[in-house]
Design a protein that fits this description.
The structure holds 2 protein chains of 2 kinds. Chain A is of the alpha/beta class. Chain A has 20 helices and 12 strands. In chain A, helix 3 packs antiparallel against helix 4 and helix 17 runs antiparallel to helix 20. The radius of gyration of chain B is 13 Å and the shape is globular. The two termini of chain B are about 15 Å apart. The chains are: A alpha/beta, B alpha/beta.
C-alpha cells in the first residue's frame, strides 16, 4: 500500500471520527484523541506533500499565534526562574555591604549590586511584557483616588530628578471625580514610565504632567494624561518605532541613558489592553509630548470611607526599623521613600526567605507584608514568624487588595495586627504604623497569657517532653535539635522525591528508615506510622504507587506536626 | 587525668548534636563526623579512646568501619554501634567482626553514657 492510499484511508477514518459519537469516552478524551489523530495526519501529509502552502494559511496563522503564546510563556518561565535567585543575590549583597569591607571591596560590592539591580529591572520588564503579550496581564478593578495617585507619581518622579535642573509641573483638573474604578497600579506604571523617561532625557528645563477630564459618558470617565518635556526630542523616522520592543530611538541611546528598551512597549500594551489610546508627537531639539487617554468607571463613594475624618495628629515613627515584604517594584520604591522620609530604616525585599533572614538578624520593629509574593506566600510567612517565640509580638500590617470579611477573618486567625487596603495614601500608612506599634507594646503581656491558654488545648501530635529531658532543660539545645529535625525532614522529602522518580525503592526505604529515628525522638506518632508502612512496603511490597500515596500522606501530615512542634516549644519555654 | 576522646560517627545531625552535648557534658572530648569517609580519614591520624558509630552511614557503613579498625588498622579500640533494632543480621555480623557493644535506636543518651563508661572501665581500667 503506498502512502497516498494510506492517506485516503486516513481521510475516511477522519470523517468517521467526526460523525462518530464516543459514548464511552469523556468529551475531553474524545477531543484529545481527535487532536492527536490530526497531528498524526498533518505530520504524515507534510512528509508526503512537503510543507503545506496556500490551502492551510488559516492553520498557519493559528500556529503563529500559538507560537507567540508559547514564546512569551517561555520568556515568562525563564525570567521567573532567573528572578528568584537574583533577588537572593541582591539581598545578600546588601547584607555583605553591612560587614566590614575595605574601600576597594566596598566599590566592588556596589558595582555588583547595581549590575544585579539593572539585570533585575530588565527581567521584571521582560516578564511583564511577556505576560501582557500572552494575555495574562491581569487588570484590577478597584476603587482608587486618582488625585492621591498623581501625588505619589509626582513624589516619586521628583526623587528621580536627582540634582538636575529640571522642574516637574503637575496640573490636575479639579472636576475629576474623587474616586474611580480601574487599575491604579497599572496607571501609575504608565505614568511613571512616561514621566521617568522624560526625566531621563531632559538635562535642563521642565516636564509637565497634565491630567484632564476628557469626557464623562454614561458610567464611564475618560481621563487624558499628557506628559510633555523640553528634552532632546525624537526624530520623525524613529518616532514610529519607539513602541516596539527592544527599540530605542537611536542605537546609542542605550549607551548613554541605559534602560531595557521595553518600557514603552509595556506602556503601549497596558493602554491597548484597557482600550485606551496613546499618541506621541515630537520635534527634535524642542521636546516630546505623550498623550494617553484611558477609560475608567465612576464609583459610588462609600459613605463610611468618605466621611472618615482623619485627625491631623502628629505621629512620630522615626527611628523604627521596618521590614517591607513586597514584590511590586513601584510600591517598593514608594515605601522606601516614604519610610525614609519619616526617619525609619527600611529593609525591602520580595523574597520571603530572605525577609525571614533579615528578621532574624536585624532588630526589626514592624513588618509590612504583601500577601501575594512569589515563592512563599504571605500566609506561610506569617505562620513561620509567629511560630518563632522571638517574633510573637512583632507588629504585622498586611497590604491587601482584598477587603472581604473572609480574608479579614483569615488574617485575624493568623495573628496579623492590622491591614491596609491597596491603594492607600501615605497618611493612612503612617497612622497604621504608629497605632499598631503602640498597641503591640501595650498588649504584649496580656497576649502571652492568652496564647498559653489556647495552646494547652492542642492535641498531642508530638511530645517534646522526653527529648527536653534528654537536653537536661537546655532550651537552646532543644531549639537547635528542632532546627536540625526540620533539616532532616527537608532532606527526607527531597531524597524521597528523587528516588520515587528514579524508581529507586531501596533508596526510599533507606531515607524512610533515617527519618523514622528523628521522628521517634519527637514522638511524632502518626508520621512514624506512615514511615513504618513505607519501610515495610520497600522491603516486601515493592509497589511504587503505594509508596507514592504513603509519601503524599506524609507530606500532607507534616505541616501539622511542624505546627505542633512550634506550639510545644513555646509551651516548654514559658513553662505553661 | 586527660579527657577521654570519643569519635562519634552519626549522619543524623539532630541525634548527633544531642549525643555530642550529653557526652561533652559528662567530660568527654567528642570528635563528630557525619559520614563514613570522614571517619576513615580521621582514623588515619589517631585512634580515639572509644568509637561510637551508626551502622547505616553514607559511603562507609558501621560494619565496614569495624572491619577497617580491627583488620586494617589492627586496633582493639572499643566500638559501640548504633543500630535500628529491627536489623538482627547486621548486629550479629557486627559482633562477629569484633564490635564490643551496640545500642538500638531511638538512642537514649543516658544509656549510651552508661555503655561508654562501661567500655572505658573494661578496656582501660583493668
Amino acid at each position: 500500500m503506498d502512502t497516498r492510499e494510506l492517506l485516503t484511508h486516513l481521510e475516511k477514518l477522519e470523517c468517521g471520527l467526526d460523525s462518530f459519537s464516543f459514548s464511552e469516552l469523556k468529551s475531553t478524551e474524545a477531543s484529545k484523541l481527535k487532536e492527536s489523530f490530526e497531528a498524526f495526519k498533518s505530520g504524515l501529509e507534510e512528509k508526503v506533500f512537503g510543507i503545506p502552502t496556500e490551502d492551510s494559511v488559516k492553520v498557519e496563522t493559528s500556529k503563529w499565534e500559538n507560537h507567540i503564546f508559547q514564546e512569551s510563556r517561555l520568556v515568562a518561565n525563564v525570567s521567573h526562574e532567573i528572578r528568584t535567585p537574583l533577588n537572593g543575590i541582591i539581598g545578600f549583597l546588601d547584607l555583605l555591604k553591612e560587614t566590614r569591607l575595605t574601600t576597594q571591596q566596598q566599590e566592588l560590592v556596589n558595582a555588583m549590586g547595581s549590575a544585579s539591580k539593572n539585570l533585575l529591572g530588565v527581567i521584571n520588564q521582560l516578564l511583564e511584557l511577556s505576560a501582557l503579550a500572552a494575555g495574562q496581564g491581569k487588570f484590577e478593578k478597584v476603587s482608587f483616588n486618582p488625585a492621591n495617585l498623581i501625588n505619589e507619581v509626582s513624589f516619586l518622579c521628583k526623587t528621580l530628578i536627582n540634582g538636575k535642573q529640571v522642574e516637574l509641573l503637575v496640573h490636575y483638573d479639579e472636576d475629576i471625580p474623587k474616586y474611580l474604578l480601574g487599575d491604579p497600579s497599572k496607571l501609575s506604571q504608565v505614568l511613571l514610565n512616561l514621566t521617568g523617561n522624560a526625566i531621563k532625557f531632559v538635562e535642563k528645563g521642565e516636564i509637565r504632567l497634565d491630567v484632564h477630564l476628557k469626557e464623562e459618558r454614561n458610567k464611564k470617565v475618560f481621563l487624558e494624561f499628557v506628559v510633555s518635556d523640553t528634552g532632546i526630542g525624537i526624530a520623525n523616522e524613529h518616532l514610529k518605532h519607539i513602541f516596539e520592543s527592544y527599540r530605542q530611538a537611536e542605537p546609542n541611546t542605550k549607551l548613554k541613558y541605559g534602560g531595557s528598551g521595553l518600557g514603552l512597549s509595556i506602556v503601549k500594551e497596558i493602554i491597548e489592553k484597557q482600550h485606551g489610546c496613546l499618541a506621541v508627537s515630537s520635534t527634535l531639539g524642542v521636546g516630546t509630548t505623550f498623550k494617553v487617554i484611558l477609560p475608567f468607571e465612576k464609583v459610588q463613594v462609600h459613605k463610611s470611607n468618605a466621611s472618615k475624618i482623619r485627625k491631623r495628629t502628629t505621629v512620630d515613627v522615626s527611628g523604627k526599623s521596618i521590614l517591607v515584604l513586597e514584590d511590586d517594584a513601584l510600591t517598593q520604591k514608594l515605601m522606601e521613600n516614604r519610610l525614609e522620609q519619616w526617619g525609619c530604616k527600611a529593609y525591602i525585599t520580595e523574597n520571603g526567605l530572605f525577609g525571614l533572614h533579615l528578621l532574624e538578624n536585624h532588630n526589626i520593629d514592624l513588618l509590612l507584608l504583601d500577601m501575594h509574593l512569589p515563592g512563599m506566600d504571605g500566609f506561610e510567612i506569617v505562620h513561620r514568624i509567629r511560630k518563632n517565640s522571638r517574633f510573637k509580638h512583632l507588629p504585622i500590617i498586611v497590604l491587601s487588595g482584598d477587603a472581604s470579611s473572609k480574608q479579614q477573618e483569615a488574617f485575624e486567625k493568623l495573628g496579623i495586627n492590622d491591614f491596609i487596603l491597596k491603594p492607600y495614601n501615605s497618611e493612612e500608612l503612617l497612622e497604621k504604623i504608629y497605632n499598631t506599634s503602640k498597641q503591640m507594646e501595650q498588649q504584649q503581656d496580656e497576649v502571652v497569657l492568652e496564647q498559653g491558654e489556647r495552646e494547652k488545648e492542642t492535641v498531642q501530635i508530638v511530645n517534646l517532653n522526653p527529648v527536653m529531658e534528654e537536653c537536661l532543660g537546655k532550651t537552646e539545645l532543644l531549639d537547635e535539635l528542632i532546627r536540625l529535625f526540620e533539616q532532616n525532614i527537608l532532606e527526607f522529602i527531597g531524597k524521597t522525591k528523587m528516588h520515587l522518580q528514579s524508581r529507586n525503592i531501596q533508596g526510599v526505604g533507606f531515607a524512610a528508615h533515617k527519618i523514622k529515628s528523628s521522628l521517634k525522638m519527637l514522638h511524632a506518632n502518626e508520621l512514624i506510622q506512615v514511615c513504618e508502612e513505607m519501610i515495610l512496603e520497600c522491603r516486601t511490597g515493592n509497589d511504587l504507587d503505594r509508596l507514592k500515596t504513603l509519601f503524599e500522606e506524609f507530606i500532607t501530615e507534616y505541616p501539622k506536626v511542624e505546627m505542633a512542634i512550634g506550639l510545644e516549644l513555646k509551651r516548654i519555654k514559658y513553662k505553661l | 587525668m586527660p579527657k577521654r576522646r570519643l569519635l562519634l560517627a552519626e549522619d543524623d545531625h539532630m541525634l548527633a548534636s544531642l549525643l555530642k552535648y550529653r557526652l561533652e557534658r559528662d567530660g568527654y572530648e567528642v570528635i563528630l563526623e557525619y559520614d563514613g569517609k570522614a571517619v576513615k580519614e580521621k582514623l588515619q591520624g589517631e585512634i580515639p579512646d572509644v568509637v561510637i558509630s551508626d551502622i547505616m552511614m553514607p559511603y562507609f557503613s558501621g560494619i565496614e568501619l569495624v572491619d577497617h579498625l580491627r583488620n586494617s588498622l589492627k586496633s582493639d579500640v572499643p566500638i559501640i554501634l548504633i543500630s535500628a533494632a529491627s536489623n538482627d543480621e547486621n548486629i550479629v555480623s557486627a559482633f562477629e567482626m569484633g564490635a564490643n557493644d551496640f545500642i538500638s535506636k531511638p538512642v537514649s543518651p543516658s544509656e549510651l553514657l552508661a555503655r561508654v563508661s562501661r567500655e572505658i572501665k573494661r578496656h582501660y581500667c583493668t
